[in-house]
Design brief:
With 1057 residues, the protein is an alpha/beta fold. 55% of the residues lie in helices and 6% in strands. This is CHAT domain-containing protein.
Length: 1057
């Protein structure tokens, strides 16, 4: 086989041929032969030199040879059609190498002409011509000289090649060209049509594709990505990801990733990110983060790619924090942003200079041109983040505009340049205060809002547009901007692709805006916010994530029910206001109680359905109480969309459903007042009111003064500041005395009780000097829970048993005395003891199943920001956590006393209205009444508290012990058991209403006739005990224990348990 000629040898041949040309006149066939020889030699020289001059001369000689006399029969075995095909091949080569769309255009035209000829007659393989036409069309499309029609023609030609009569000849070049076009169009932000036909052909090609032909699976994966970004079909995602994963894993172990693998990893990262944006599923977000981390760990990434990926990773980490409240995710996001912003200015400026040079050498239409432009804009953005110089952001805007003009807006990601430019224009406005930037930003974002295939990102844009329009409204007071904002709010709130918590927060802003401006949509806004409130929690799979979402919405979402209720009160809708307050309280506990709904009523009508629902509830409860997301839950849009005639599953409603899974109606709620009126104080910035719920008549309203809300907050702040010096400090005691002294004023928040007394007198109720003795402050945040806990206990008996759980050690010397007090009750009530090695989490939970009363003597632990980790310290330092207690399903119990530290205390980073503490957990599991501690409990007080509490508790042989009696032991009988400042201080009950910390107070007033006999008996016993001081309830920071008739709180600021 002859060796390849060198450039020197080719030059010698060219010189010889040129000298020979003078021997033959132009019309002579010898002259034609030598022109053809020069064309071939110049083409060979170009293949070695890559010099455009050689290719230009080759094309010129081919053209000249065609127009000269026909080649002689005894000359080279070449005919005019073969010569023409070689000319076209040279034109195609020049169009590819030097990005000349005109050459591609002529090549396409000539090749189409050749396909019309009987090529076999001229000894030109038809497959060669067809392949060349596919390549020419590909170049034309890449250089933006062609479009959809060219892609359609390529599909037809490639399918023809694939089904030709020569199955052993795989059309590699044509398929590579076709796959390259798909990837190029995607990178350029151009549309790919007909997409379905493209995907179908690439699937066919892949079936017989050699394993080493990586562009084919890459092209198919790209087409599937485009379609997934258009119609969100999960099958496309799975197929594309499988193709990419196979490419990523194609290297042998230990080998560095090649260019194809890096590209496949980048595409997989983008694909996972898109899915996480479309579907707010925790697992999808975790996969997107995992793939982005894996890609960033590669050492083969360019600085530009790493720069963009780092920013994307920071966004994902921040989203992870917003979804799950994971502190490490927020720290990661901040670190990644810091890394991205930490580039030295010299490096940033060098990157900018290099990109300017690359752009100057890359003509528009080149597949790299837009990439360089985007990188340049991003590096200028990084520079602006360091300098805040308007000139830098103006450079960003200039290059963003260039990208925008070269992007096809019909592409699935065609919105990105306009979206980014709008953000940068807003940044320019913030930097310069020039309204022209703000105007252009608004105009651009409006245009993006009208684009197709933008659903998954529409919500964020609506938020940005509302911000921009509101900013301009404040500057120019244009009512058109206000009207547009009010049109955008319902669009964002109803966006089914947005996260539920985001939609809920946005609905709260909408409601607040309509309330402030008295817009006609105010009722709609509030109703939508209420419908999204619970859905924003249900869409999170675990209690911990739900709690994190509540914390994230603190200050916005937690006040919304109170604000809506204040509006309904303003409109005279008192019954609806009470329903709203009921729906908006203790969301986590209400949801969990809903998962344990009794199916007894439903089972009487449809036993199989009741059993099925009970099993589903149990599975959901198990998932909800898990520590981390462990499954995929498909959830509906927020709010109840069930027709009145349909059940929750879309079937005709069966008998027994009634109010199943619905918010309690006012008629059901008012049952809470069956034992006496219930006072509800609604504490809202718009207006504060006192509602009186009575069992057999409409609710009543007692208005408050305009400054009630401010005064209450001032008192709360005063106590919070004073508490930092300690509960036994003089500052805190002065603050308490000051509040008590001021409480007699008509404008003071505590005057709510006296106003209630006035109301009671006006309604012919018995009111006397000892009326306060029969007013029980309830820590129950919902009236439904109050009603539930008043239902007769199936285990109520004459002498129920008591479980004593104790873990005494050297740090609890007083525990033994307290234990002896409890064990001495054995003559009145059977006492079982779990102490030492028997006091294990499993043993305690099992013991609680068999006893109606329980008393804990041990350490309690509480960690800031982690309410579910609150725990009892048992034997060998084992912990019985709040979540462990919640998971247990206990039979109904009567009463539990948690004599450990922090059992009814909230952590600093928790939600007061939710009451996430050990006392609430014990009550949730079935105990009707629970006593807990709001702070550290003094060990020396344990014995006296137990003695003074239990002796009257179990007095009166022959009488059943009721849970209500525990409340009376702390707040009734004329005196409270008081511990604190001085052991010789006169007895005095401090029982202030909870209007400061929780914004709502539930008081149960019973008439003197109903309870007078019981009160007199308890008074006689209470006077026999040594009086000491107990602060029954800390005024401003009251613990809220949900779902309990009476959950009392004790405490003492001394050496603690």
């Amino acid at each position: 086989m002859a060796s390849e000629l060198t450039v020197v040898e080719i030059d010698q041949h060219i010189a010889y041929i040129q000298n020979a040309l003078s021997l033959f006149p132009r019309p002579h066939s010898g002259h034609t032969i030598r022109i053809y020889a020069l064309a071939m030699m110049r083409y060979k020289r170009y293949r070695l030199s890559d010099q455009k001059e050689d290719l230009d001369k080759s094309i010129l000689h081919y053209t000249e040879a065609i127009f000269l006399s026909p080649l002689p029969l005894d000359g080279p075995s070449l005919n005019i059609i073969q010569l023409f095909f070689q000319l076209v091949s040279a034109l195609l080569r020049r169009s590819k190498a030097f990005k000349r769309p005109e050459d591609a255009k002529y090549a396409v035209e000539y090749l189409r002409f050749l396909r019309e000829l009987p090529l076999d007659t001229f000894d030109v393989p038809r497959n060669f011509v067809t392949t060349s036409l596919v390549e020419a069309l590909a170049v034309q499309v890449k250089l933006e000289a062609g479009g959809t029609q060219d892609i359609e023609e390529m599909v037809t030609l490639c399918r023809e090649l694939l089904t030709s009569n020569n199955p052993e000849c795989y059309p590699t070049d044509a398929i590579l060209a076709f796959a390259g076009v798909i990837m190029s169009r995607f990178c350029q932000g151009k549309q790919v049509k007909p997409l379905d036909e493209v995907i179908q052909y690439l699937r066919e090609a892949l079936k017989i594709c050699p394993p080493s032909l990586h562009p084919v699976p890459l092209g198919l994966a790209t087409a599937l990505m485009i379609r997934f970004g258009t119609i969100y079909l999960n099958d496309d995602y799975e197929e594309a990801m499988t193709l990419l994963e196979n490419l990523i894993a194609s290297n042998s172990p230990g080998e560095s990733p090649n260019e194809t693998q890096i590209l496949a990893s980048a595409m997989a990262s983008v694909l996972a990110r898109v899915r996480a944006g479309i579907y707010p599923n925790p697992e999808y977000l975790e996969e997107a983060i995992s793939r982005r981390r894996a890609l960033l760990s590669s050492s083969s990434l360019s600085d530009e790619l790493r720069h963009g990926l780092t920013r994307g990773m920071a966004i994902l980490a921040e989203q992870r924090f917003n979804n799950f409240g994971l502190t490490e995710a927020l720290q990661e996001a901040r670190c990644l942003d810091a890394v991205r912003a930490a580039y030295p200015m010299t490096v940033v400026e060098e990157k900018i200079r290099n990109l300017h040079e690359l752009i100057s050498k890359t003509p528009p239409g080149n597949s790299n041109h837009n990439t360089y432009i985007e990188d340049l804009a991003n590096w200028h953005r990084t520079k602006f983040s360091c300098t805040s110089d308007i000139k830098d952001i103006e450079e960003v805007i200039k290059y963003r505009r260039m990208l925008l003009h070269s992007t096809d807006t019909s592409h699935p990601f065609g919105f990105r340049p306009a979206l980014s430019l709008g953000y940068d224009l807003y940044a320019a406005f913030k930097c310069s205060n020039k309204v022209m930037y703000l105007d252009e930003s608004i105009t651009l974002h409006r245009s993006v809002l009208e684009m197709q295939n933008f659903e998954a990102f529409r919500f964020k844009l609506i938020q940005r547009l509302v911000l921009s329009l509101s900013t301009r409204l404040m500057l120019l007071c244009r009512m058109q901007d206000f009207d547009e904002v009010m049109r955008l709010f319902p669009m964002g709130v109803s966006d089914r692709f947005a996260r539920m918590p985001d939609r809920f927060a946005f609905s709260c802003v909408w409601a607040s805006a309509t309330r402030a401006t008295r817009h006609p949509s105010i009722s709609v806004a509030y109703e939508k916010a209420m419908s999204l409130m619970q859905s924003s929690l249900v869409s999170a799979p675990t209690l911990q994530i739900q709690h994190s979402r509540l914390v994230a919405l603190r200050g916005v979402g937690d006040k919304m029910p109170l604000d809506y209720a204040s509006y309904q009160i303003e409109m005279g809708q008192l019954s609806q206001a009470i329903e709203t307050l009921e729906q908006g309280r203790a969301l986590l506990w209400s949801e969990m109680r809903g998962l344990r709904n009794s199916m007894d009523h439903l089972s009487r009508f449809n036993s199989p359905l009741a059993a099925k629902l009970a099993a589903i509830n149990k599975d959901l409860e198990s998932l909800t109480m898990s520590v981390t997301p462990s499954g995929t839950i498909e959830l509906s849009d927020g709010g109840s969309q069930v027709d009145d005639g349909m059940d929750p599953f879309g079937h005709p409603k069966s008998p027994g459903f009634g109010d199943f899974l619905k918010t309690p109606s006012f008629e059901n709620i008012r049952i809470a007042a069956s034992h006496g009126p219930v006072v509800i104080i609604n504490h809202s910035k718009w207006r504060s009111d006192i509602l009186i719920l009575v069992h057999d008549s409409p609710p009543s309203l007692i208005p408050t003064t305009n400054d009630f809300y401010r005064l209450a907050n001032d008192l709360k702040d005063r106590l919070v500041v004073a508490r930092k010096d300690g509960l036994d400090s003089d500052k805190y005691k002065r603050a308490l005395r000051s509040n008590n002294h001021e409480s007699g004023g008509a404008r003071h928040p505590f005057s709510a009780l006296f106003r209630f007394m006035q109301w009671a007198q006006s309604h012919q109720m018995t009111v006397s000097s000892d009326t306060f003795q029969i007013i029980y402050p309830s820590y129950t945040p919902t009236l439904s829970a109050l009603i539930e806990s008043r239902k007769p206990s199936p285990k109520t008996s004459y002498k129920p048993s008591l479980l004593l759980v104790a873990n005494p050690d050297e740090s609890l010397p007083g525990a033994f005395g307290e234990m002896s007090v409890i064990q001495s009750l054995n003559s009145r009530v059977p006492v079982a003891t779990l102490c030492g090695k028997n006091a294990t989490p499993v043993g305690v939970v099992e013991g609680l199943r068999h006893h109606g009363f329980a008393h804990f003597v041990c350490h309690g632990t509480l960690e800031t920001g982690k309410p579910f980790d609150a725990s009892f310290k048992l034997f060998n330092d084992e912990r019985l956590t709040l979540l462990d207690i919640v998971k247990s399903r206990l039979p109904a119990g009567e009463f539990a006393f948690l004599a450990a530290c922090h059992t009814a205390e909230l952590t600093d980073e928790s939600i007061a209205d939710e009451g996430l503490h050990l006392t609430a957990a014990v009550q949730y599991c079935g105990f009707r009444s629970v006593v807990g501690t709001m702070w550290e409990m003094a060990d020396i007080d344990g014995r006296e508290i137990a003695e003074n509490f239990y002796k009257p508790m179990f007095s009166g042989m022959g009488r059943a012990v009721h849970a209500e009696k525990s409340a009376y032991m702390l707040s009734g009988g004329g005196h409270a058991i008081i511990f604190g400042e001085s052991r010789d201080a006169p007895a005095k009950a401090t029982c202030e209403p909870d209007i400061l910390g929780g914004d709502i107070l539930t008081l149960s007033l019973t008439t003197a006739v109903e309870h007078r006999k019981s009160i007199m008996e308890q008074e006689a016993q209470a006077r026999a005990f040594k009086r000491q001081r107990v602060i029954v309830k800390e005024t401003a920071l009251a613990s809220i224990c949900p779902n309990s008739t009476h959950t009392e709180v004790l405490g003492k600021p001394e050496a603690s348990r």
